[in-house]
Amino acid sequence: MKKSTSVDKALKKAELQLAASISCHCSISSIDHIGEIIQQCSKGSVLEKLKMHRTKYSRLISEVLSVALKNELRDDLEGKKYSILMDETTDISSEKKVCLCIKYFSEKHLCAED
Q1: How far is Cα 85 from Cα 62, in angstroms, rounded to an integer?
Q2: Which residue(s) pair with 87 in the sheet?
Q3: Which stretches within the chain are classed as H helix?
Q4: pTM of the model
Q5: CB atoms within 10 A of CB 2
Q6: Pick from 19, 8, 11: which is nearest to 39 by CA?
Q7: What's the CA gap between 24 and 41, in Å, rounded?
Q8: The sheet that has 96-106: what strands, in order across it?
Q9: Per-residue pLDDT of the chain (114 residues; tens, 9 = 90+)
Q10: Domain limits of the chain?
């Protein structure tokens, strides 16, 4: 079994930070181009080895980040009052979509959260 080096850990940390940023600020389809730019501009650094593609980042977001964020939200909401706004729609391909918005006061961040 291969030991994880500090370079591997730094690379994994960068990948998770980029996945979180991409999921919040832009389309997942732009990740391929952003990855190429980062590799070109990062010669000699840890980020030179960064492999960024839509499929990898989609899985990171859905299988790692979303699980961690869901657990954090559950812990933050436990025993607290909150309100939920729900909307459902059906798109042109007859696929149903649901959106949930939870509004609550976070004692951890000391502010109202959406």
Answers
A1: 22
A2: 99
A3: 6-25, 31-41, 54-60, 66-77
A4: 0.69
A5: 5
A6: 11
A7: 23
A8: 82-90, 96-106, 111-113
A9: 566 688 889 889 989 998 899 888 888 888 888 888 888 898 888 888 888 889 998 999 999 999 998 999 899 899 999 999 999 999 889 999 999 899 999 888 888 988
A10: 6-109
Contact 47, 38 (CB under 8 A): yes
Rg (CA), the chain: 18
Give the pLDDT confidence score for residue 47 in this predicted structure.
Answer: 87
Q: 103 by DSSP, 3-state: which?
A: strand
The Cβ of residue 77 has, within 10 Å, a number of other Cβ atoms equal to 14
Helix (H, G, I), strand (E, B) or coil at 98: strand
Q: What is the DSSP letter of 107?
A: T
